[in-house]
Amino acid sequence: MTPFLTLLQKELLRFWKVAFQTVAAPILTSILYLVIFSNALGGHVKVYETVSYSAFLVPGLVMMSILQNAFANSSSSLIQSKVTGNIVFMLLPPISYGEFFCAYVLASVARGLSVGAGVLVATVWFVDLSISGPVWVVTFAILCSAILGSLGMVAGIWAEKFDQLAAFQNFVILPLTFLSGVFYSIKSLPPMWQELSRFNPFFYMIDGFRYGFFGVSDAPPAVSLIVVGTSFAALSGATLLLLRSGYRLRH
Amino acid sequence: MNPAIEIKDVRKRYGPLQALDGVSLAIEQGEIFGLLGPNGAGKTTLISIVAGLARADSGSVRVMGEDVVTGYRSARRMLGVVPQELVFDPFFSVRETLRIQAGYYGIRKSGPWIDEILHNLDLTSKADANMRSLSGGMKRRVLVAQALVHKPPVIVLDEPTAGVDVELRQGLWKFMRTLNREGHTIVLTTHYLEEAELLCSRIGMLKAGRIVALDSTRNLLETFSGLYLKLRVDSQELPASGSFKVTESDGDLFTLRLEDFTELEGVLAQLRKAGVTIREFEVQPPDLEEVFVRIMNRH
To answer: For residue A250, is it within any domain?
Structure first.
C-alpha cells in the first residue's frame, strides 16, 4: 500500500501547496458567475416553479467547478511530469498501473470536491438553498469527479505538449460543460438542441446532481445515474488499458 | 550467484531505426561496468529497457535474477537509476523529494537513511531548500540520492558526469567507488573515456545497437592499443630505413608507434646505429580513447 499512498499523498500535496491557484481561484470564478448571472437574469428566468434562478444556478456551478478542476488536476500533473521529465521518478519504482490510476483519480476527486465544497459554502451567503438528497449529491460529486479525473489522465497521457492539452480542454471539456445546462434547463432550448443535449454525458452529470438538491430534474434521475455510472466504468477501463499498454509513458 | 544484470538477445526498433540489434550481456555482481559508445549507439535505450522505462521488442532482461517484465516489482527494487537528464519536481524540497521517492519503493520510515545519504552527498545544508533553487550540480546530486533511497544492490548511472564541473565529477567518482566497495554493482554509461578507464573494471562498447567489444578494461587496453614512443632527438629527421612508423613529427620531436614493449629495444638500436642521439624520451601507455577509436572504426 505504501507506494500507492505515497503517490496519492504527492498528488494531493502538489495541488494543495498551490491551493490559492488550484482551489481558491476557481471558487472565486464560480462566485462571480453566480453574482453576475443571478443579478442579470434572476428576474427574467424561471426554470422550476419552486426554485429561484439563483438557487437553480448553484448546483450547476458547483458541478461545473468539480468537473473542470478534477480534469485539470490529473491532466496538468501528468503533462507537467512528462514535459519536465520527472515522470521517470514514478515510472522507475514498482508501482502497478492500477495503483497509478487510483492515486491520480483520487487526487482529482479530492481537488474536485474541495473546490465544489468551497463554492457551495461560499454561495450560502448569496442564496437560500436546501439539499433534498444528500446521498445523491455526494454520489454524483464523487462519480463525476472520478470520470473527469480519469479523462484528465487520458488527455495528460495523450498530449505531448501543453498546447495539445489546452486544445483538449478548450475544444472538448469547456463546450461540453457549458452546453450541459449549467446556466439553463435544456427544456428552454429548441427541440433540436434538446435532443443534442441528451447525447452530452455532462448534461446527466449536472442534471442528476441538481436532482439531489431540488428533487426535480430534466431527465429521470435513474437515467442520469446509469449514464454516469456507465461512463465511469467505461472510462476507467479504457484508462487502465492505456496505462497497462504503456502508451506514451513506457516507450 | 545470479548476474547483477543479464541481458539476452534484446532487440528494439523505433520506426525505421534499429536501436538495439540483439544485445547480450551479463554484468556480474560487484563490478563497476562501463557502457561506452558514440551518440545514438543505443546506451540509453538499453538502460531504459533494464529500468522498465522502455519495453524490448524481443529478448529478456533480468536484474539480480528477476525478469524486468514478469517480475517487475522485485527487479525494480533491486535497481537504482540516475537518469541522464537533469530532472526534478519543482513542487518539493530536497528532503520531500527523497521521502516521496522512498515511499514509492514501499519504505515508510526513511528519515535516518535519508539523513545519511544527504550527508554523504554533501546536501545536508540544502535539505529543506526547494528543488528549483538548487544549482545544476546540486540537482545532479539529488538525482543520485534519489537512486539510492531504497538501497538498491545495482546502481545504473546514465552519463552522470555530463556537464558537471571537475570538483563534482571527482566527488561523484569517489562516491561511486565507495558504493562499489560497500557491495553495490555499478553500471555507468559515459562519453568520457578517461572516466571509464579510471573507474571501470570491465567495459562493453556499443555501436549501432550492437555490442562490438566486451572485456576487462585491462584486456581491452592490451589487445587493441599499441604504445607511443615520444622522442626529442638531435636531428630534424629520422632514418628512412627504420622499421618503425612515425605518426607525428614537429621539428626535432617525433612520435613513433609501437605494437608493444618488445619492439622498443630494436627501435632504439636502429636509431643509435644511424647516429641519432636521443635527448628526451617518453613512452605513453595505451589509453582507452585509442582503443575506442580503433574498435569503432573496425566495425
So the answer is: no
A24 touches chain B (CB under 8 A): no
How many Å apart are CA A35 and CA A30, to the nearest integer?
Answer: 9
Cβ distance of B55 and A246 shorter than 8 Å: yes
| Contact assignment for B104 to A3 by CB distance below 8 Å | yes
Mutate to test the interface with A, among B68, B72, B89 (most CBs of A within 10 A): B89
> Is position A6 within any domain?
yes
Structurally, chain A folds into a number of domains equal to 1
Distance separating alpha carbons of residues B59 and B209, to the nearest angstrom: 14
In a domain, A251, yes or no: no
Question: Which pLDDT belongs to residue B225?
Answer: 65
Chain A interface, best mutation among B79, B91, B156, by max A CB count within 10 A: B91
Q: A13 in a domain, yes or no? A: yes
pLDDT, averaged across chain B: 90
Q: The pTM is what?
A: 0.89
Q: In what order do the strands lie in the sheet with B17-27?
A: B17-27, B5-14, B58-63, B66-67
Measured in angstroms, the CA of A170 and the nearest CA of chain B are apart by 26
Domain residue limits at A146: 2-245
Of residues B299, B212, B209, B296, the one with CA closest to residue B19: B209
Q: What is the mean pLDDT of chain A?
A: 93
Residue where the block lists cell 487526487: A107
